[in-house]
Amino acid sequence: MLxxxxxxxxxxxxxxxxxxxVLCLGVLVYEAAAIALAHMRAHHIPTDFGFWNQRAGFDxxxxxxxxxxTSTYGRAFFVGLLNTLVVAAVGVVFASLLGFAIGTARLSQxxxxxxxxxxxxxxxxxVPLLLQILFWYNGVLKALPAPRASLAFPGHIFLNDRGxxxxxxxxxxxxxxxxxxxxxxxTGGMKLSPEFVALTLSLILxxxxxxxxxxxAGIAGVPKGQSEAxxxxxxxxxxxxxxxxxxxxxxxxxxxxxxxxxxxxxNSSLAVFxxxxxxxxxxxxxxxxxxxxxxxxxxVTMAVYLFVSLLGSLAMNLFNRRIAxxxx
Amino acid sequence: xxxxxxxxxxxxSLGAAAxxxxxxxxxxxxxxxxxxxxxxxxxxxxLAGFGxxxxxxxxxxxxxxxxxxxxxxIFDDPNKVKFIPLTAKDRFTALQSGEVDLxxxxxxxxxxxxxxxxxxxxxxxxxxxQGFMIHNKLNISSALELSGASICVQQGxxxxxxxxxxxxxxxxxxxxxxxxxxxxxxKAYDSGRCDAFTTDSSALYIERLKLANxxxxxxxxxxxxxxxxxxxxxxxxxxxxxxxxxxxxAMLNAEEAGITSKNVDDKMNSDxxxxxxxxxxxxxxxxxxxxxxxxAYRLIKEVGNYGESFxxxxxxxxxxxxxxxxxxxxxxxxxxxxxxxx
Lengths: 328, 342
Hints:
The complex is a heterodimer of chains A (328) and B (342). Chain A has nine helices and eight strands. Chain A is an alpha+beta fold. Chain A has a domain at 76-147 and 192-327: Orthogonal Bundle (MetI-like fold), CATH 1.10.3720.10. In chain A, the strands form three sheets. In chain A, strands 1-2-3-8 form a four-stranded antiparallel sheet. In chain A, α3 (111-125) crosses α5. The longest helix of chain A has 41 residues, at 2-42. In chain B, α3 packs across α9 (238-256) and α3 (62-75) packs across α13 (295-302). In chain B, β2 and β3 (59-60) form a beta hairpin. With 342 residues, chain B is an alpha/beta fold. The termini of chain B are far apart. Chain B contains 14 helices and 14 strands. Chain B is 40% helix and 16% strand. Chain B folds into two domains: 29-127 and 229-325, 3-Layer(aba) Sandwich (D-Maltodextrin-Binding Protein, domain 2); 130-225, D-Maltodextrin-Binding Protein, domain 2. Chain B has helices spanning 2-24, 29-36, 62-75, 91-96, 111-116, 158-169, 182-190, 201-208, 238-256, 264-267, 273-278, 285-289, 295-302, 306-313; strands at 39-43, 52-53, 59-60, 81-85, 102-104, 119-121, 126-128, 130-135, 149-154, 174-179, 196-200, 217-219, 227-229, 232-234. In chain B, the strands form five sheets. Chain B has a five-stranded mixed sheet with strand order 10-9-11-8-12. A three-stranded parallel sheet of chain B has the order 4-1-5. The longest helix of chain B has 23 residues, at 2-24. Chain B is globular, with a radius of gyration of 23 Å. Classes of the chains: A alpha+beta (328), B alpha/beta (342). Chains A and B meet through α1 and α8 of A and α1, α4, α5, α6 and β10 of B.
């Protein structure tokens, strides 16, 4: 009985110490924040979001929602966010397709195909992503001809050092808007800027190398006996792959795939090095500089990356639970 | 044991809180600089004539000289400066956060930067304006013919804002391609990504020398903005603001009084009351600023007057060959004019 009381009191002590520690930490953080805020106010450094509805005054060339220099800083935030998301979305889709293709190619019976896929993986994942982005932007896309000497492809598609110009569907009147050369460059149609192409392409090629390895490991992780058993049951090769190997491999592939998708999303912030107007370039760059609101701007930018990453992680976990359930 | 641990945690947090509060009640900038032993100066690492380190890490430029002059006034040694390279985009955050004591980064003085970002500009050391550079082969002679063009620009600058104002007020279309650094923007222009490159016109002449074929590029005649460059300090330290401001005025007044780094020793014996006040032979203006009597003598002797610094970095004695123009003293038809030392 005595020992029970002792244990209880020691447990209570331990809880007390922990509570006291958390309280001290809380007070410390609060004090530090209060001092920082007081300092910033004393030096007239913006600490709030008063700038949000002020006029931005600068232009952003690629905007998926209506934007002009008379729009607000808040609007510029959403323009940058959408530009980041579009790179991430296009990147994830094509990196997955390419990654799955290369990953299965590495397991191919054909030695040439397997070697080539192996070479791709080793070359792409061992060169820093930033160098790859700069290579595509400065090395490849800049070597394209000037607008007046554009490469013309069938179907009113034009390529020059200002980007790729393709026909764009229009609603009223229904039909297509075609790119036409006018003055300095093409007008009409849809433009993919060299910055967008270089960034998205490098993210796809780089991330695909990692996805390929994940896919290869996933498929190799399914015991050989499984396909042998399927063959014994007289399933065709295609059927074996579809009903036996892939469902089991997916369970091994999806969790690490999630990290690669999140990496791609976060790596898109390297846009700042080639002038693609993503969230970091527009909001944590120009808006921060024009307003001086460093703390609010960086806090929001970080929160956005955190929020979108958590959302992506959640979606992938749900997907994983579904396929894991389906395989049983 | 537990009590001891509790006490420890409590003391630790008290200590940390005291530390933070001590940081809050900080000493003045001048005292901090003196205690540190050198000046932290935020400079442009990539604009010849204003701020540029060579391969040995020796910085030169008009803004660099200004930082050296402040160091000379404080320490009697123009080399007690640590130059901290900053991009246009990061420069204000570095000053606000205390990473630099002084920002001398060909920065345009505007109301939003002064009233909205907690800065104080100390006095114009170069009057500039924004222009455009284009590839010769475009065959145009005015910025008003640029409708539809792609323009490379450095982000976070007044150039980016003036560009939008100029094109919209003339109802012209354009594509703005904004880069974090001037070098990236220039490189993109040089490789043909843009039809034009825009920045302050002094920088256009300087940057043109970096291009693959400088003669294949022409600077258009239009000046679309006022760009008064000024060093800047943080708000809240009037003494420091005064020191930096009067270093600029001392350099201008020295030129006006004909005092150079070469003849400053002779001028100590001069009868000219202006020179005697400036050099500290008469009056104690240095002490009232928080410096020594010979503060201006030191900076003139060790760095030179405004004209010497201009010619050495931007003018006839440099490879840039920029004319004084409106940056000449008011006595020579320019608009550089410093309040008197008296």
